[in-house]
Design a protein that fits this description.
With about 475 residues, the chain is mostly helical. It has helices at about 15, 35-40, 45-50, 50-65, 65-70, 105-110, 145-155, 160-165, 175-190, 220-240, 245-255, 285-300, 300-320, 360-375, 385-405, 420, 425-435, 440-460, 465-469, and strands at about 1-5, 25-30, 75-85, 85-90, 330, 335. The strands form 3 sheets. The chain has a two-stranded antiparallel sheet. A two-stranded antiparallel ribbon has the order 3-4. Strands 5-6 form a two-stranded antiparallel ribbon. A hairpin with a 5-residue loop joins β5 (about 330) and β6. α12 (about 285-300) crosses α14 (about 360-375). It is globular, with a radius of gyration of 26 Å.
Length: about 475
């Protein structure tokens, strides 16, 4: 189940971290819990390709129906309102300000393909292509959801004129003309990476929003930066280290952090790692920021700087010899196979070729930590003039260029990622919604325990009963 909950912008972000500040509108069942044969049959033909998306928005349409009827735009909603020391009888309006979620849930809300490679349009907010997504100097062309809704409606009218085609009579056209029009409409939507659907939020009042739903889906920094860009940078730094270097790194971190006793530790990123800093599995968002902070401390220390410098030299020689980057070597830089207790050779997957040069790594991580501290505690943000916006965007682009230069990713899509490109949209989101804390998805992630996991344990796991309810 996927809960759809809401709260009021009158509450500050500290209040929004409490589940009592949220109310659940409804639940969307997992419509993909079918066999592969059923899903393949369901998605045959041009009309069948967007079938799961249309089912998803049909469920959302039912859930947000009560919200549409109680926004106060068409029918007046009048209540007694407390304003300071006075009480007044006023008309109330409830426009939807924004919708918070991770990248996948927001892509589903706007009907975009749930694919992040080999598609014409990578980002839901603009028309960037995968080839341009790693360009820090890219100028985004933001899209309007109204135009996309018109394209989807025009395509659906060619298939179901009785339901969507008001004033359209397909009998005036030959079957060949209708088929060609359907193919053209499908290709136009494919160029936009959009499913053919009627969006459940197309008639929800979004206030003075100019781009429709797409502007109401701000980018969440917890998923885009901490669980995205920063996570990949740390993997790039750690992956070329061999077991001996990782052991030395863990020892250096223990020497730095264990003797530390300070009442100000709570003001810094979380720096306690039970299984060692080189174990990157099951880390939370705050812990990933703590890993970056500790790596900075290691890079500025004498033992850590020496270890990283030796590692960079070993990796440079391994690249010249064509060896694996994360294997043990002897004094002649010849690789040594490690054999485990079971007699099998241990192998690790090299994620990228990073030279771990301490000075460059230090500058890159300092920029990323400064960026994290800025968007977490930098309010109020100065965006009064175009120069302020340009300076803010230039600083973000500088950080992105340092990441591209000092943390190259050679696996999969490299840095041609949606989360990497989302960094360029932060200034626009701050201008619209203020501090990124206002659109932080962490409260919703925590509320899933009360809103989805516990009710899910008590619910009947029978499909007919679930759909009936």
């Amino acid at each position: 189940m996927e809960p759809l909950s809401f709260t009021f912008t009158l509450f500050n972000w500290k209040c929004q971290y409490r589940s009592e500040a949220w109310h659940v509108l409804g639940y969307v069942p997992d419509l993909e819990m079918k066999s592969s044969a059923y899903k393949t049959k369901q998605r045959l033909g041009l009309m069948g390709k967007g079938h799961p998306c249309r089912n998803y928005h049909s469920c959302l349409e039912r859930i947000v129906m009560s919200l549409k009827q109680n926004q106060g735009k068409h029918e007046a909603i009048k209540e007694w309102i407390c304003i300071g020391d006075y009480v007044s009888y006023r008309r109330c309006f409830f426009p939807v300000a924004l919708m918070i979620g991770d990248s996948q849930s927001q892509d589903k809300m706007c009907g975009r393909y749930l694919a992040y490679a080999n598609i014409p349009r990578l980002c839901r907010a603009c028309d960037v292509t995968p080839e341009e997504s790693d360009n820090p100097d890219h100028k985004c062309n933001f899209l309007s959801m109204t135009d996309i809704n018109d394209m989807c409606l025009g395509a659906l009218q060619l298939y179901k004129p009785a339901q969507y085609g008001i004033g359209i009579d397909l009998n005036e056209f030959t079957p060949l003309e209708i088929k060609e029009a359907q193919q053209e409409a499908h290709e136009n939507l494919q160029l936009m990476s959009q499913h053919m659907h009627i969006n459940a939020f197309h008639d929800v009042w979004l206030g003075s929003n100019t781009c429709g739903l797409l502007e109401s889906l701000p980018h969440d920094m917890m998923h885009a930066f901490l669980h995205g860009v920063l996570m990949y940078v740390i993997e790039v730094i750690m992956s070329p280290l061999n077991p001996t270097e990782k052991f030395q790194l863990d020892a250096i971190v223990d020497d730095i952090m264990i003797p530390l006793r300070s009442s100000l530790r709570k003001d810094y990123p979380r720096c306690s790692f039970t299984h060692g800093i080189t174990n990157l599995t099951l880390l939370t968002a705050d812990e990933r920021c703590g890993v970056a902070f500790v790596l900075v401390l290691v890079a500025i220390s004498k033992p850590g700087s020496d270890m990283l410098y030796k590692a960079s030299k070993r990796i440079e020689n391994a690249l010249k010899r064509g060896q694996k980057l994360n294997v043990e070597v002897n004094d002649a830089y010849i690789g040594i196979d490690l054999v485990g207790d079971d007699g099998e050779t241990e192998e690790e997957i090299v994620i990228a070729e990073s030279l771990c040069e301490p000075t460059k790594m230090l500058y890159m991580l300092e920029l990323m930590l400064a960026f994290h501290a800025w968007y977490k505690t930098g309010h109020p943000f100065c965006l009064k003039t175009k120069t302020d916006k340009r300076n803010m965007l230039d600083a973000i682009r500088t950080m992105m260029k340092e990441i591209l230069e000092n943390a190259p990713r050679n696996d999969k899509n490299g840095w041609k990622l949606q989360k990497f490109h989302d960094m360029l949209h932060i200034v626009r989101d701050i201008e619209n919604y203020g501090s990124p804390n206002n659109v932080d998805a962490a409260p919703n992630e925590n509320n899933l325990i009360d809103f989805a996991k516990r009710p899910g344990k008590r619910a009947h796991k029978k499909e007919k009963f679930l759909y009936h309810k």
